[in-house]
Design a protein that fits this description.
Length: 101
């Protein structure tokens, strides 16, 4: 049987991998993937705690809202990355130092 500790270990591993990607990568797409991994770790925590909540499934409800939020965030971030690439011809965050005309 899978225990709550197993869920927490997997979630912590996902969070650490996502945090490493956000801190170390030099590509905006890879940074966005790292942020998504961090959000997935949080969603896994919500679902895991919701599984052990016998009264009402509030964890699953919060996880559903978090998934919708993650999808909206990804759409907006990809639109921003595409516009930055069109203007600067790079997606390296260090090369983009001027955002005004």
């Amino acid at each position: 049987m899978i225990t709550l500790t197993d869920f927490m270990v997997v979630s912590a591993a996902l969070f650490c991998i996502g945090l490493y990607m956000v801190v170390s990568k030099r590509n905006a797409i890879q940074i966005l993937i790292g942020i998504e991994l961090i959000l997935n770790a949080a969603i896994l925590n919500l679902v895991a705690f919701g599984k052990y909540d016998k009264v009402n499934n509030s964890g699953q409800i919060f996880a559903l809202f978090a998934i919708v939020l993650a999808a909206a965030t990804t759409a907006v971030a990809l639109a921003i990355i595409l516009n930055v690439y069109r203007r600067y011809k790079t997606i390296d965050p260090n090369d983009i130092n001027k955002l005004r005309d």
